[in-house]
C-alpha cells in the first residue's frame, strides 16, 4: 500500500514556463470551488495546512504544485510524485472573464504536462451531476487523460445511502468504466482506495 511520508509546497504558476521542472509522476485535482480539493490533498499527504483551504469561492486562481515522497508497503526505498491543485470552477461569484482565464490555464496545463498520470475530478456526493463537471470529464475523455471521480463529503451521508448516490452520480456523469469513490476528509473514508489508484498509475 502506498503511503506518503513527506510533502511540501513547491510553487504556484499560471504559465507553462513557470511550472516546476521536475519529471516526477504527477496527479492533479479538479472540481468546483470549495468541493474539498485542498482538504483532500492535506489528508492524503497527512500534512495539515499544506494546501490552503478557503471559504471564498474561486480563491485558488493558480496551479499549486506539491512534491511528495512515498513508500510502498514495507519497502525501504522511497519515490517521489507531484500533486497539483487546479483552480476551482463553476461559481457565479466569479466573473465570466475570470472563468475563461481559468479554462485557458487548465487547458495549457493538460497540453504541456506530459508527466501527468491521472486526474481526480471531485464532486459533492450530496448533489446531482453538474454540467461543469460533465464538461471537465468530456475534456479529459477527448484528451485521453486517465481519471477517476471522487465524491467528497461522504461523512454527510449515511453509508446505507452512499451506494445509490454513487450509482446516480456515475449515471448522471456518464462515467461508464471510470471509477468513482466516496471520500471524506473528516473520517478518512475512501482514502485507501485513493492511494491504491495512485499506486496503480505510477
Structural write-up:
This protein has 202 residues and is of the alpha/beta class. It has one domain (2-200): P-loop containing nucleotide triphosphate hydrolases (Rossmann fold). 32% of the residues lie in helices and 26% in strands. It has helices spanning 37-45, 96-112, 131-143, 159-173, 191-200; strands at residues 2-13, 26-31, 63-72, 79-85, 116-124, 147-152, 180-182. A 7-stranded mixed sheet has the order 1-3-4-2-5-6-7, sandwiched between helices. Helix 3 links the parallel strand 5 (116-124) and strand 6 (147-152).
Secondary-structure map with pairings?
Elements: E1 2-13, E2 26-31, H1 37-45, E3 63-72, E4 79-85, H2 96-112, E5 116-124, H3 131-143, E6 147-152, H4 159-173, E7 180-182, H5 191-200
Question: What's the short version?
Answer:
This protein has helices at 37-45, 96-112, 131-143, 159-173, 191-200, and strands at 2-13, 26-31, 63-72, 79-85, 116-124, 147-152, 180-182.
**Strands of the biggest beta sheet: in what spatial order?**
1-3-4-2-5-6-7
Number of domains: 1
Rounded to the nearest angstrom, the radius of gyration is 16 Å
SS element count, helices: 5
Structural class: alpha/beta
How is the biggest beta sheet arranged? 7 strands, mixed
Strand content: 25-35%
CATH topology: Rossmann fold
The separation of the N and C termini measures: 13 Å
The low-confidence parts are none
User: Quaternary arrangement of the chains shown?
Assistant: single chain
Instruction: Name the CATH superfamily assignment.
Output: P-loop containing nucleotide triphosphate hydrolases
- The CATH class is identified as Alpha Beta
Helix amount, in percent?
25-40%
Overall, the morphology is globular
Spell the H/E element sequence: EEHEEHEHEHEH
Average pLDDT number: 91
- Number of extended strands: 7
